[in-house]
Amino acid sequence: MLGRKSRIDKTLVAFISPALVFYLLFIIVPTVGSLYYSFTSWDGINPNVNFIGLANYKEIVTSARFGNALKNTVVLTVFISLFENAIALALAILVDRVFKLKNLFRSLFYIPVLISGIVSGFIWKVMYNYSFGVINAMLKSAGLEALMQDWLGNTHLTLIMIGIVLVWKGAGYYMIIYLASLQSISSDILEAAEIDGASAWHKFTKITLPLISGAFTINFTLSLINGLKVFDQINVMTDGGPGFTSETLVYLLYKVGFNEGRQGFGTAVGVVLLVIILVLNTLQQKFLRKREVQV
Amino acid sequence: MKKAIALLLMASIVLMSSFAGGSQEDVVAADSSATTVTFVFADGDAGAKESINEIVNRFNSSHEGMRVEIQPGNGGNYTEFVRTKDSVGEFPDVVEMRGEAAMYIRAGKLAPLPAELTDLFLSPMVIDGNVYTVALAGENTNGIIYNKAYFDEHGLTEPQSYDEFIELCQTIEDLGDMDPLVVGGGDLWHLGFLFNKCWDDQVISLDPDFIAHCYSGEKDFSDPSVKAAIEELVQIMAYAQTGWASTPDAQITTFLVNDMAAMMYSGTHMFTQILSADPDFELGWFAIPSPDGKVRLVGGSGISGLAVSTECQSDPAKWEVAIEFLKFFYAPENYGIYCDTLSAIPATKDAPVSNGLPVLQEVITATGEADSLSPMWNSKSGINELPPDFRNFTYKTAVEVLLGQRTIDSACEELNKTWAVAASSFNPVTGQGIN
Q1: What is d(CA B345, CA B287) in angstroms, rounded to the nearest whole number?
Q2: Which one of A25, A230, B294, B311 is at 20 to 30 Å from A90 when CA atoms are compared?
Q3: Can you tell me the distance from the alpha carbon of B163 to that of B153, in angstroms, rounded to the nearest whole number?
Q4: CATH no. for B143-298+362-425
Q5: Is the complex ipTM more than 0.90?
């Protein structure tokens, strides 16, 4: 018995080891290395690395800049999670109910997903431009000059404008997941409910929504993680500005670590971000898993 | 049939491989006869790319046994590009350094340059008794570049004092044809031009070693002179176009040549860009006098410029090529290409004869007559060198004030807090983080 178990273990190890080596080498070792650098004042260039204990973490706790980046990250993540999923679900229901040209609509809504984050950022940056952008041009030609805005320069609007781009780009992806889930609901259940006199609203809230709760869990988890690590669009559209208005945790990490010569502090921000993602994801999983229904 | 196709494919592959091998050998043969040094520069500006490529081509064709190989940066974030090169062990032999030069010098990456080269320059930046970088040009002198035709049409004249400048802005605003000033505040470094002017006017005019005194704890950013600098910035920025906070530097030329703004505050590199966009544009230039009546301009040599790596220095053959190349680059007949293309002010003693614009001559004259000429506040070295992350933080905090997100007092408090953290790990006065 023991011999058999030992043979199975060796086989398992043989299969797992190639992936494990890569995982250890490219994920675990750098992560542990990052942990070390987060206790230093390394500038990213100088081979001499000074150990400064918890100074970086102390700065994180007291720094208004970190607090601002955390607030921006939360606002953007909540905005994306809610609107991306709401729009994706609406699109999925629409596409599910369309009988003709279903594939065409599915492809049309999915196209923004295929555009890279950088490119989508550039496209919308041009559209948002105060003096030359299409949005203000349309408002002007419609006689609504009072509504013209510096969309990316107005500190009250910047984060929302970035959020809109992210929702536009991401909703199609989540739509596909919702659509697959919707199409897996047996028509028998819906027909039975209809015979029992259930209204369309009741069928949606009491049958459809509970049965696609698995897709909710996946989509909310993905949009949460994506929201927490938004980078491309901020980099292209605002560079974290104006001022610190659109600086998120990931962007702060990048700016201080790679642009401002504070790799040690940037790494400490990265470690804190990792902890935040782990905690939020665990909480979210626990909450959403409870609501899932199996048929 | 299948066999025939397979044979044909195999034959093609064998044939192509042999050609490929042959050509590779040729290249290797050509390269192996020459000592090659790698060269990296900020190629985001088309003029810089074109002119430096031309000088490198001239060098390669005139120096047998020596070769300079440009490694293109493709116009991205140059600081990151150099840093990436360094981190993957490909730090170039000859490299253009920006404000972060001091950091690379402290890391032991840059070699002290020999006197045969540094003696060619008017005022090379000396650090600890050595010169590590030779300026590509004199510091980019900023001033107001304006639409001369519009000024003439409305009888507007160049201001002789700071108050007259503010009056001029107000007059243009009242005329209502266009914005008085276009500012590319979407790029922080562009906003830095105006910030530096206000900083020089209010802070450096009173204490040239203000930053050193902050390091030593004698002064801080709640100093009235710092508040006055931000107030001056707020006063000038009141005349910037709507949308300045999201306008990139690359777009400001469009405002000027399309009669959307009458003036911009920028460096001489803009002359060529403006005339490329509109060859008939009538350029005017003047310096904005300081509120105390003096004229303070950005000029002289800063820490930015071309440098040679210590790794290159350790190989005598490569070192010889690198130094020979730099001497060739700054020879008047070659250096003139760069200066003319970028409307740059020469940094060498034996300056090239300029075929440049008359307006550039005005700038050169103004720098000669200015009451003070100094590098940008973030291009200084020694006891006045800024902590690595402080420049951008200051600009961003200034933007917050300009957009009404915080008061000047709270901005000064934030600057003090960030300074305290920054100076605890980097302080050239006490030596902390330097050695």
Answers
A1: 16
A2: A230
A3: 22
A4: 3.40.190.10
A5: no
